[in-house]
Every structure is written in C-alpha cells, then in structure tokens.
Amino acid sequence: MKKDQVSQGNGLSPLEAAAQIETLRQQIEFHNRKYYDEDSPEIEDAEYDRLLRELEDLERAYPGLTASISPTRKVGGTARRDLPKVTHPVPLQSLNDVFSESEFRAALERMEESLAGTSWGDGVSYVAERKIDGLSVSLEYVDGQFVRGATRGDGLVGEDVTANLRTVGGIPARLHEAVPYLVARAEVYMDTQAFDRLNEQQEILGGKIFANPRNAAAGSLRQLDPAVTASRGLRAFTFNLQTATGIAFDTHSDSLVWLSSQGFEVSPGYVVCRGTDAAWEMVSRIGEERGVLSFGIDGAVVKVDRLEARELLGATSKAPRWAVAYKYPPERQETVLEDILVQVGRTGKLTPLALLRPVRIAGSTVSRATLHNQDYIAEKDIRIGDTVVIQKAGDIIPAVVEV
Questions:
Q1: Euclidean distance between CA atoms 61 and 77, whole angstroms
Q2: Residue among 352, 367, 361, 365 at smallest CA distance from 393
Q3: Of all residues in the chain, what percent are helix, strand and coil, respectively (each to 5)?
Q4: Measured in whole angstroms, how far is the alpha carbon of residue 31 from the centre of its chain?
Q5: Staple partner for 153: which of 79, 307, 367, 401, CB 3.0–4.6 Å?
C-alpha cells in the first residue's frame, strides 16, 4: 500500500473532514497491522507519527467525528490467531508522544496543574527512562514462580508466549521472595550484535532478512518453537510493576529497585529528577547517548514517580496521564550511492540495498541502507552515483530518504 497524500484539515467542511479522517484511519490501521502483527513495517516511525498526529489534529478540530474505534483511542496491535490468547490482568497501555521541547514542557505542566494543591504538587518528582525499542510483554508470577507471559496485543488481550519468554535473558524463573501474586511489564529486545549475527545467518540460509532489531525481536518471540526463540539471543528490560499482593511501594523508583533485587533486569540508566527543567535535562542527555548504546531506543519516557499521584492523574482508554514519551528526530547525513545490491530471500522476495560511501551517523559508521523495494527506487528516481540523504529510523535502521 502506498502512502496517500492527505491535505491539512484547516478550512475543511465536515464532509471533507470525515473523508480525510477515514482515509487516515485506514492508513494507520494498515500500518499498525504491518508493524505490530506482521513485524514488517512499510514506513519509517517518523512518517507513522506524522499520520497519527494529523489524525489527532483533525479529531480535535472535529470532535463530532471522533469514534471510540479510532487508532488514536486504542493500542495498535492484535493477537495472532495461531497462538493462545491471554486476557491481561492489568491493561498494557500505550504512551502519549511529544516531539518538541515545548510540547514536552506543556505535557508536564498539565500533570503539575492537576496535582496542584496536593502534597505532591510542589516540585513534582519524575523518573526519566530510555524508551527501549522492542516488544512489550506482561510477566505473571504466583508464589514467586514465573507462570505466564504474554505479548501486549491490543492492550487487553495478547498472545501466550510463556515457553518462549522462559528462554529470554533478564527474566527470572523464580523471585528471591515468594510474593503471592505479581505482574510486571517488560520490553523484549535484541541488541545490535545479536541482530547483525542473526541477519548474517539468515542471509547464508536464504531466510528472511529483518529490517531492524525491533522487528527481529518481535518475530523471534512469536515463534511456535521455543528452540528458535532461544537461538536468537533475546533479552528483556523490566520497566513497571503492574500489580502485586503482599508488597507495596510509595514510588515507581522504589519498585524498580525492588524488581532488580528479585532478579529482573530493569530498564538501565533511569534517573529520578525533580521538576520540569531537570526532567528535560535528562531527556536531552538520553538523546546524546542513544547512538552509542548496544540496544535501540526510540525515545525517552518521563513518568510521575509518586504512585498515589499517578492514581489521581488517571488514564484515558489508550494511555496514562502520568507519563509522556519524547520522540527524538531521526539523524540524517549526506553520502554517495556507490552501488545497489539486490538480496534474494528464501521465498524469492527481492530486497534492494544501497551500498554507500561510509558515513558516520547516530554513533556508528553506515555503509549500507535499505531501499525498501523497486517501486521506492522508481518513485524517488534513485541512481548509482547520486548524492543521497540517509537516516536511521529509530536510530537503528539506515534508510535512503532523499536524493
């Protein structure tokens, strides 16, 4: 499916706005299926974010056209038909995204205004974390034993991947304390070394070449054979205690310390910061280091630390009001296209790769980039010898985006 060009909503009649909203919804639902269900996205994250923001703006301008089934109101994925289904004991929600410092500050200001007059309202404490680029899962424990794990799916119902999660590093089979019941949320990821190794093996075997570590992790976790998952070198960072009996904490940061003590590999490098300025400083710092990490991040997350304050702020049907995700703009560089290599997959699928004059981008040297498919090459009139602009989507996958 090619991207349709959609005009801005200013000055549209209700009929025109309704048609434009429906077009955007269909596009976004299509790309949700490609990304969440098939692990084979066709557009970059930044382009998807643009479509979603355009739909949000239109629905805000024409509230009478907003529907509960809109992709702005629900999590994007669904559960696979060939895997058992699991109803999450606690919904696995998404996050509200922001794309600029002003939007970030406005989001935190809204939180602080809602907490004004409470004991937590004077200088709100936040936790700033890296937003790991992987596949979100829930982990259930009974009497300290890992009993079930599931993918996020649509946030309410996911896929039972318990056997596969038992092979993933960073997830303890047994906690140090026999807590009666616990649900934690984690992000399963594949580091860049494991990703490169997997694609090298896939190329030799004529198998599927994965576009990026996130899709490789998702495809590897959703295997029917746990032995395949075990061979892929997956790991998981746990980033939230969803619910528990027999234990209680005042703050999110306290719960992370406890989770770490129980054998979970928690999201690394998180920092407790007081006030908006300190939170923005941490977001900026995370952005500076993202190119040298061994795993992919697709942003930074800032959350209210005090758990009682979170309860007061509440949530929408899609996302909590006590957290926000900042999305960094993708880094771009110019270089020269020296050749085009066509890879042939096991099924005969042809995937063109750009062979580039090496260039440094997002902390690493890039000499290859995806060209997606022949239609993409023809549409942009890409030729050997051209000066091209490349970017790293999610700061992982190099892609030619301009000529």
A1: 26
A2: 361
A3: 35, 30, 35
A4: 14
A5: 79
Q: Model pTM?
A: 0.76
pLDDT category of residue 401 using cuts at 50, 70 and 90: confident
Q: What is the pLDDT of residues 182-192, one digit of tens each?
A: 999 999 999 98
CA 304 to CA 314: how far, in whole Å?
11
For 221: left if phi > 0, alpha if psi spans -120 to 50, otherwise beta; the answer is alpha
318 in active site: no
Q: 3-state class of 66 per DSSP?
A: coil
Fold observed for domain 14-65: Helix Hairpins (1.10.287)
Q: How does DSSP assign 84-146, residue by residue? A: -EEE-SS------EE-SHHHHHHHHHHHHHHHTTSTT-SS-EEEEEEEE-SEEEEEEEETTEE
Residue 41: strand, helix, or coil: coil
- 85-326, superfamily in CATH? DNA ligase/mRNA capping enzyme (3.30.470.30)
Catalytic residue among 3, 34, 131, 392: 131
Query: What does the domain layout of the chain look like in residue ranges?
Result: 14-65, 85-326, 332-402
Which residue in 129, 135, 171, 168 sits closest to 290, CA to CA? 129
Q: 332-402 is classed in which CATH architecture? A: Beta Barrel (2.40)
**CA separation (Å) from 45 to 327, 332, 384?**
10, 14, 26
